[in-house]
Amino acid sequence: MSHAHAETDHPAEHVETGLDSKKLLMWLFLASDCMFFGTLITTHLVYRKIYENIGVDPVSVFDIELTTASSFILLMSSLFMALAVSAIHKGEIKSFRWNLIGVILFGMLFLGGQVYEFNHFVHHAGLTLSSGTFGSTFYLMTGTHGVHVALGILWLVSWLVYSFTGRFKAEEHAIDVETAGLYWHFVDI
Questions:
Q1: What is the mean pLDDT of the chain?
Q2: pLDDT greater than 90 at residue 10
Q3: Which residue of 44, 60, 153, 188 could cross-link 137, Cys pair, CB 3.0 to 4.6 Å?
């Protein structure tokens, strides 16, 4: 009995992972998000095989040039994010802000392209949520991705605004910006 009592009197030993706890938590969140998106994609692919008569020919609906341009824009926003993280680590607030503005603008361009595509799909191609399994799983996947991008943009806008408050310090907030960068890179992929 005294042995059990002695164990509870001593605090647990601290174990260092080598990662900042904020980054570790973001990596865990991103891992769970990978599983979530993996499930969405798998469901879409499985249902496409089960219900082949989807009513809409995906090849004739999608505009490969627009999709390619939108993807390129989103991937280029990752370059701006990497530059923003690099700038904050160097204490270059002005460069950080300009690169963050680039990320935000490119993210908004991507969302604008997605809205344009969805409008085209609904009004010109007849692809809606009720267009069968393809329509519902397609909009669920791409809509969820769009929500992730929009939330990332809001997060980055908040960092941009906060950087003008006078309370923003590069050395104190670099890890927070880097954590936001991890999220943004995940959204791009």
A1: 87
A2: no
A3: 44
pLDDT tens digits for range 38-68: 998 898 888 777 776 556 666 777 888 988 9
Please state, in angstroms and rounded to a whole number, the distance separating the CA atoms of residues 92 and 95: 6
Q: CA nearest 147: which of 111, 186, 181?
A: 111
The DSSP line for the chain is -HHHHHHHHSPPPP---SS-HHHHHHHHHHHHHHHHHHHHHHHHHHHHHH----SS-HHHH--HHHHHHHHHHHHHHHHHHHHHHHHHHHT-HHHHHHHHHHHHHHHHHHHHHHHHHHHHHHHTS---TTS-HHHHHHHHHHHHHHHHHHHHHHHHHHHHHHTTSS---HHHHHHHHHHHHHHHHHHH-
First to last CA, the chain: 55
pTM above 0.85, yes or no: no
The reported pLDDT for the residue numbered 54 is: 58
User: What is the torsional sign of CA 88, 91, 95, 98?
Assistant: positive
Do 149 and 111 contact (CB within 8 A), yes or no? yes
Contact by Cβ (8 Å): 47, 133: yes
What tokens were used for 130? 């009720």
> What pLDDT does residue 64 have?
87
> Count of CB atoms within 10 A of residue 35's CB?
10
